[in-house]
Amino acid sequence: MLRLGFPVVGVSDVPRAVEFWTAALNLVVSDEWASEGWRTLIGADGSRVLGLMASTSPIEPYPRLHLDLLVDSAAEQEAEVARLKDLGARDVGWDRYPPEPDFVVLADPDGNRFCVVDLSNAPSGR
Q1: Is 17 in the same domain as 41?
Q2: Per residue in 68-91, pLDDT tens?
Q3: Quick one: 12 exposed, middle or buried, by C-beta within 10 A (0-12, 13-18, 19+)?
Q4: Are the beta carbons of 59 and 111 closer than 8 angstroms?
Q5: What is the per-residue pLDDT across 30-45, written as a single tens digit (0 to 9) for each?
């Protein structure tokens, strides 16, 4: 039976990505399948959460697939955005925000775009 695995993010610097994403999402590195060009990050329960794969592909300014990181309030969103920036994320000059956006677009240290979504302001929460 076909099953959905976990997201994999292509990065140019695997150790830097490991440092960012483990701190950002409170994950740990698994020894499973570890190599110079691959790391699996796992949660406290041991489940595979995120793969990091060495890549030389250019960053997509408007990626068709990205990560959404979820928070429950505007205050939590503001705090998490600040924390992620302290870890090395950066603002993206996102020109596609809707009126009253429920998300903030950031880039990880490799430039991969991701969103921090305030579920209290999300369209599905209205």
Answers
A1: yes
A2: 999 999 999 999 999 999 999 999
A3: middle
A4: yes
A5: 998 899 999 999 999 9
Spatial separation of the C-alpha atoms in residues 122 and 126, rounded to whole Å: 7
Q: Tokens representing 33?
A: 């399948």
Kindly state whether residue 18 falls inside one of the protein's structural domains: yes
Q: What is the pTM (predicted TM-score) of this model?
A: 0.93
Residue 126 has pLDDT above 80, yes or no: no
- In sequence order, which residues have a C-beta less than 8 Å from that of residue 92 and are 6 or more positions away? 105, 106, 107, 113
For residue 38, the enclosing domain spans 8-54
Q: Is the dihedral of CA 77, 78, 82, 83 positive or negative?
A: negative
Tens-place pLDDT, residues 88-109: 999 999 999 999 999 999 999 9
Q: Please give the C-alpha separations between residue 6 and each of 35, 88, 93, in angstroms, as whole numbers.
A: 18, 23, 28
